[in-house]
DNA sequence: AACGCTTATCTAAACGTTTAGTTAAACGTT
DNA sequence: AACGTTTAACTAAACGTTTAGATAAGCGTT
């Protein structure tokens, strides 16, 4: 591939001049500039970003570290990031960690070596390394979707507490009190918050939920399936269920179908995450919808801002006196989810009110 | 961030020595090596891949250029690529072009500048630039999912002809003859192939399909919706429909639901692509399932092979005499799709046989 | 004619590695 | 004691850019 040297030679100028016309970083005689441009064209010259990066210390690469791009929840986040990244001249690296901290560690190392300009991460719990790594590498980082207990940094998340609150509240408003709750591991901030939201809704309504109706499991749809079955194996049968994640709801929904539960007659169902299939099933599901694409966009915008004014916030870098005036406060965005009421929820029917006398 | 110089200084050796212990590229006194390793640890040294790349001319970056990561068809492909890439020490850049050739062009430029080691691309039709770009940049490339008429390169695709054949054949076997076909733009190899497959199935069965029952549209679900409606607006009503893509089937399925068509009693439905929701709807759909994850894996493996023996195949680089003995022949993998028979298809019922006499 | 200013271009150092080639010490042979 | 061989480490060029500073020509003042 042609180098700047080739271009310079062809145009009969020094390489510095070529650099100046490319970057418009100094005045260049229009005539000369034209010759240079022509040479660039003819040689199909692509400036070597590697060499550029080495001297400018900027790679124009953003990285995203998530659980799994295959998850319909994460894909739009990544897409949102990509769209704003591209607009700003960045390109994005995608990293899947499958909620596995050793994969995370390896990726962070790799990203550090590649000297990516920034990182957007949906953190897995229990990464103590994370803090150390992030700090020492000094890569501008914004958290997306989940918080990390260990590290303070910019954050874009949904208002999960509110989302869950709205879901449960909706069911309560419809007269349900025996409400089953299926949720992921509460070590993760999203689920912890959603659980709080559920509790608040119950409390406000003066309803004390049967503790046997609360199920917490893992991330996997299978776990959702499992929990759904358990919910109806207990003494108190719920008349409504709130499933606290899209992935879990896939499994749970399958379980409900297998059990032949009529929705919404026998079971009112509210689900977190408004993925593709929620409107395709019959009846279409009432969901708490997160603005995933926008979440990605916001995260990327904040990250770019951080990169521009390269002042890592206080908690990551100990306050150096000289820096202070420029420091941007830590951003913490909370996107309001929407409750989309469809046909999987309905008023509690007198006939099916009790659960104990169930089928 | 610490540099190799810092490490050398701390360990009391030259930078060359440090390089040797890192890369194990020369014998180093074990004692010295230990000192170096310790220095690396203490400084949390991450070798600067930028600098490495500049001299080794290898970035350890693979890139994937697809329509949209948000599409449940592409996500597993990317995941397959990522998994084999990571195992080989590569990291992957994801690029969405939204089937837009100008975005493609910009991305190719960008990737060229970043000097990515390889490219996996699902080509959009009508990119004449593609050929020129790919050739001049000399980036090892493998096509995935779709062929490009313009450029010859390694290719991993589904046997789309076979997939469609199986789908139609299945419907014919069930006694259907008025079979509607909904398919994407036949300028794209996938759809062209699928159309051929449909035709072959009809031909073999001695059935001449009503031309009004063949609809071709765009990529978008809306287009699927549109075509589904049109299909039942015509004079000949189909008793079965074959939808030739997952994205289109989303729209089509919605249309069928709106029209209140009983599946499979009034309409037997076969759909391409076995995405998440096909088993969640009632009844679960009969689908032609592509092995997308595996497709990504294979593509990445072939690409890595190409990168290793860096012999760009004949069509891209004119045959130089010296190279010949090493050249690997162009790979062309065709993954067989599976017909998964579920409950959306059934034997043609006598009562609904005709279509002309409407509902 | 000498001076300073502007404009256009060039020179060369720097970025952080890899690696071929060199040096130097240590050791075994003769 | 002189020599070759092995081992271990060093020196310096190269990779392809950016960019500060130097140079030099052209021009308007005085």
Question: Which features would summarize this protein structure in a list?
Answer:
Rossmann fold; 434 Repressor (Amino-terminal Domain); homodimer; 6-stranded parallel β-sheet; alpha/beta; DNA-binding; 6-stranded mixed β-sheet; 41% helix; disordered C terminus; 359 residues
List the helices and strands and how they pair.
Two copies of one chain form a homodimer.
Chain A lengths: L3 H8 L3 H9 L6 H14 L5 H8 L4 E6 L7 H14 L3 E6 L4 H13 L4 E4 L6 H10 L3 E4 L9 E5 L1 H14 L5 E5 L5 H17 L8 E3 L4 H11 L8 E4 L2 H13 L9 E5 L13 E4 L2 H17 L23 E4 L2 E3 L19
Parallel strand pairs in A: 1-2, 1-3, 3-4, 4-5, 5-11, 6-7, 6-8, 8-9, 9-10
Antiparallel strand pairs in A: 10-12
Helix pairs in contact in A: 1-2, 1-3, 5-12, 6-7, 8-9, 10-11
Chain A binds a DNA duplex (30 and 30 nucleotides) through helix 2 and helix 4.
Describe the protein.
- The structure is a homodimer of 359-residue chains.
- With 359 residues, the first copy, chain A, is α/β, with parallel strands linked by helices.
- Chain A folds into three domains: 4-56, 434 Repressor (Amino-terminal Domain); 61-158 and 293-309 and 329-335, Response regulator (Rossmann fold, 3-Layer(aba) Sandwich), CATH 3.40.50.2300; 160-290, 3-Layer(aba) Sandwich (Rossmann fold).
- Helix content of chain A is 41%, strand content 15%.
- Chain A has twelve helices and twelve strands.
- In chain A, strands 2-1-3-4-5-11 form a six-stranded parallel beta sheet, with helices on both faces.
- In chain A, helix 1 packs across helix 3 (30-43) and helix 6 runs parallel beside helix 7.
- Mean pLDDT of chain A is 91; it is low at 311-325 and 352-359.
- Chains A and B meet through helix 4, helix 5, strand 2, helix 6 and helix 11 of A and helix 4, helix 5, strand 2, helix 6 and helix 11 of B.
- Chain A binds a DNA duplex (30 and 30 nucleotides) through residues 3-5, 13-17, 19-20, 23, 25-29, 32, 47-57.
